[in-house]
């Protein structure tokens, strides 16, 4: 007898092929049959008539390692149908924290991981202690974290001894099951790393079968060179490279997406193992301090705060922004394009723009920016509207691009419910399957499902998931194609997506009739050392 059968639904299997009406039978955490309605029995039957039955969705670019220990039900993601999250992105990971260095890592990640407890830990200990959650988790180790542990926030090349130490820490993480390395070359300390440093670490990845995901060095005026740098890693080492949240930020760069995509497609055509993901929004999110020139962060948070209190430093920052635009985000129309998402010490400012804040205080906008950073000790998080809608459409609709939220699994209450975070935390995948298909007609539903299931699994080298196939893990999402939608807004972001009725993770029902059951069947999916990328 099967554990569960999903009857009467329209099965879209995650390969990109058109769907078909079929039943899906599950037993012992696996898919055991997909086909016409059979006579077999099951302990439970789910009526999926009028609904789509798809693989559990994969969020290929997320930061939920900072929130899942605080919100293990993963409500903002699981209610969209997400069953697996790839975390430790943009060079940021909560481990390793070398002896006596946990406080340094906590301060560095304060704007990304408010409320998360940090402790001295190896990556292996971190993996073993990762708590039960509603979703499966793929962990990456962050280059910024490794560099912080090795050389702090110093803006310089590593010594040979420091590089060897970083390579050793990377090997330890890979041996513990880390899927690969991520980088955030747009900010300190990763921005100090020359390409040779990344290539040296990529050679470690190649030996262990790991992957490399990169928030490239510049997503604004230098985006073409930054993407070429990422492609060069894949071309030189053979390591699979995932270019994170591909975009062209800043008004000076709008309209160039077709040319950037053509360069990536040319690399793929000559066999370079490179993919990219994107979120279907024109607004990014980041720590406020990252909008300032990189030298502001040199020496650490305390040094940054001391600098920003000085009039002459602010004048230098103001001049650089006037000439070059915001670091990594380029030139924006005004500070009204930047709004406060989460401010630990100024919670009343959430949702307001920096331009409005400056006008209310009667001060220069750059002074307002620096004052907020000082008040929050660098922990302010903001939203930046800096991407052209036409570029978003061009990237998202490219057949081989994938979709990732670049967001956290959160819930409306508790520590993760603070402020007004990006609505993509609650809506990226629902928006892809709903509005992008039904309202915008950007692609067909099978194509949309592929971008968030089978396509993501193939890019990751993730075996046994991402497709509805006999013998694969029983990660399944059932949704109404006429109702699935992103309901979160910038003014009211803490709103769950609609239209998902059932979500099954490793054979356990987590969302039932649209409501969370409280089940936490997710697993850490580890890459087996020296044996390539497999789901174990």
Question: What is the strand and helix layout of this fold?
Answer:
Layout lengths: L1 E10 L8 E8 L2 E6 L6 E6 L4 E4 L1 E3 L15 H4 L3 E6 L14 H7 L14 H7 L6 E4 L1 E2 H9 L8 H16 L4 E5 L10 H14 L2 E5 L7 H15 L3 E3 L13 H13 L4 E5 L4 E5 L13 H8 L2 H14 L13 E5 L11 H8 L3 H11 L5 E5 L3 H9 L4 E2 L20 H10 L1 H5 L5 H7 L2 H7 L15 E4 L20 E6 L2 E5 L2 E2 L20
Parallel strand pairs: 1-4, 1-5, 6-7, 7-8, 9-10, 10-11, 11-12, 12-13, 13-17
Antiparallel strand pairs: 1-2, 2-3, 5-18, 14-16, 15-16, 18-19, 19-20, 20-21
Helix pairs in contact: 4-5, 5-6, 6-7, 7-8, 11-12
Radius of gyration: 22 Å
Approximate shape: globular
What does the average pLDDT come to?
96
Sketch the major β-sheet: 9 strands, mixed
**Which regions have little confidence, pLDDT < 50, spanning 5+ residues?**
529-536
How many H/I helical runs? 17
Determine the fraction of residues in helical runs and give it as a percent range: 25-40%
- Quick one: how many beta strands? 21
Whole-Å distance between the termini? 25 Å
Question: Structural class, please?
Answer: alpha/beta
* β-strand amount: 15-25%
